[in-house]
Specification:
Elements lengths: L6 E5 L4 H16 L8 E5 L6 H15 L8 H5 L2 E3 L10 H8 L6 E5 L6 H10 L7 E5 L7 H12 L7 E3 L7 H11 L13 E9 L8 H5 L2 H19 L8 H13 L9 E7 L1 E3 L2 E3 L2 H5 L8 E6 L11 E6 L6 E8 L18 E7 L3 E9 L10 E9 H4 L8 H11 L8 H20 L5 E4 L6 H8 L8
Helix pairs in contact: 1-2, 1-13, 6-14, 9-10, 9-14, 10-14
């Protein structure tokens, strides 16, 4: 059922995500008139607040995290906010929450960010209190399980109250402008799609590098590790967008149908196709940082780095490796996709002593949003000693290319789509399960072969074995 919600219910309304992302995003949407003037936002969490104290809490968060140029809109935004304390583990509290939400006229959008152990009681409470009716939809923030079995358990619980067309599984990477630009780059330009295949592309690299360590997430990260925290969701979604076949239309069903075909075509990893690591003390930007065990306070076998060599078994990508790499305490923060094209079949410049390099397409996602294409160009000169060529970049900085429009963080787009009911940038259940099937097989292989993380120094690009993973096939990581 298509509807635009007139009420938004935020679970976890006092948490870090709400303070850093959700409240600033909603304030920005409100300031720009992108949500209806009568949209009512109800926050709920265990913390005791009334409307006034929660508005004061929200004002402090917005003062800290909202861009300066938007702060004039805060007083009007705060009038939208209401609050109802709730312990989601106690079913009797949901009647008061439903009373606080009140009558739903146009529709109710629910944003659920909670511990996995609270998913079932929360869904049951929503259902019993009448908050999961036909005019309600729900957005689910990760983590949605720790493997295929637990993911199915959570999805079954949600499906008991909400049909698939009213379930919005959130991967905030899909809300990033440059990620969405992958579709425009591929399917809006005749230049790329005809060569977007194994005949012309040598390999693909996807890197998600972080400089931070645990940052207060020890409880979650120790139970997840790099593979489940980053690869299972963000990186596999990026891979699917790079590798998918052209959808027939720009709509949720067409796009997600093509993504799931890619995920189901991922070949199980072979021996030697993965490297895991865990950082030890080192330095980030000349500042000393402790090792993972020191931050955690005990010994651990959880991986903070993983590099994988994946293959997609279909006609388009036969024989093309997809190299995935992610880790904490790496030298720089960046998320990028690098498409390495094949070398030209014959160089007319070789007899002149000129060396050519294969073209590269580099899509920067964060912190710098850009698209760069490396091409060969002649070095200026009279060429008396022979023609000289050099690789030169053609760079498009997305913020510079579109200087007019306001830059928006991912959650602005995702919250607006949740309110309005557009599922295009949300993940369907069959996608999630295909991702978990592949990840579970990797973890089973690690367990079967007793693979433990190799150590690497904080501030480096991971274990030396990760370099060897690429160089075995003649590749080098793009750094």
């Amino acid at each position: 059922m298509q509807f635009t919600a007139d009420k938004l219910l935020l679970f976890g309304a006092t948490g870090d995500l709400a303070q850093r992302m959700l409240l600033p995003s909603l304030c920005a949407l409100s300031a720009d008139g992108l949500v209806a003037p009568d949209l009512c936002i109800i926050g709920t969490a265990r913390t005791e607040h009334d409307d006034i104290s929660y508005r004061n809490f929200a004002a402090e968060a917005l003062e800290k995290f909202l861009p300066e140029e938007r702060k004039a809109s805060v007083p009007d935004f705060l009038k939208r906010l209401h609050y109802q304390p709730l312990d989601a583990s106690k079913p009797e509290g949901f009647a008061a929450l439903a009373e606080r939400v009140g009558k739903v006229v146009d529709g109710l959008a629910i944003f659920l960010s909670t511990a996995p152990s609270l998913f079932e009681p929360t869904i049951a409470g929503l259902q019993q209190s009448g908050l999961a009716g036909e005019k309600s939809r729900i957005g689910l923030e990760k983590p949605l399980g720790t493997d295929l079995e637990t993911s199915r358990h959570i999805n079954d619980a949600v499906a008991a109250a909400f049909p698939e067309d009213r379930i919005f599984r959130i991967d905030h990477y899909l809300g990033k402008e440059t990620v969405q630009n992958l579709l425009a780059l591929r399917f809006g330009n005749i230049l790329f799609e005809p060569v977007w295949n194994a005949a012309h592309i040598d390999h693909v690299q996807i890197t998600v590098a972080e400089t931070v360590g645990l940052e207060g997430r020890a409880g979650f990260y120790e139970g997840a590790g790099a593979l489940r925290d980053m690869v299972q969701n963000h990186m596999l979604q990026l891979l699917a967008l790079v590798a998918m076949e052209p959808p027939s239309n720009y709509d949720p069903t067409s796009i997600r149908d093509e993504k799931v075909k890619v995920l189901r075509s991922l070949r199980p990893l072979g021996p030697g196709d993965s490297v895991t690591g865990q950082y030890r003390e080192g330095a980030i930007g000349s500042q000393p940082v402790p090792g993972y065990d020191e931050e955690l306070g005990r010994d651990s076998d959880t991986e903070t780095f993983v590099a994988l060599k994946a293959h997609i078994d279909n006609w388009r990508w036969n024989g093309v490796p997809f190299l995935l790499r992610t880790g904490k305490r790496l030298p720089e923060r960046k998320t990028e996709i690098m498409i390495q094209f094949k070398a030209i079949p014959h160089s007319i410049f070789a007899g002149q002593g000129a060396k050519t390099e294969p073209n590269k397409l580099i899509i920067g996602i964060q912190p710098r949003e850009n698209v760069g294409l490396s091409v060969m160009a002649k070095i200026p000169g009279l060429d008396r000693g022979g023609v000289r060529l050099r690789e030169v970049p053609l760079d498009i900085s997305m913020p510079d290319a579109f200087a007019g429009p306001q830059k928006r963080i991912a959650y602005e787009r995702l919250l607006l789509d949740l309110i309005e009911g557009n599922q295009t940038l949300f993940v369907r259940r069959d996608e999630v399960e295909a991702q978990w099937e592949w990840i579970d097989a990797i973890r089973a292989g690690w367990a079967e072969n007793a693979i433990k993380p190799r150590t690497y120094t904080a501030g480096s690009w991971g274990p030396a074995a990760a370099i060897a993973l690429a160089e075995r096939d003649g590749f080098s990581w793009h750094e």
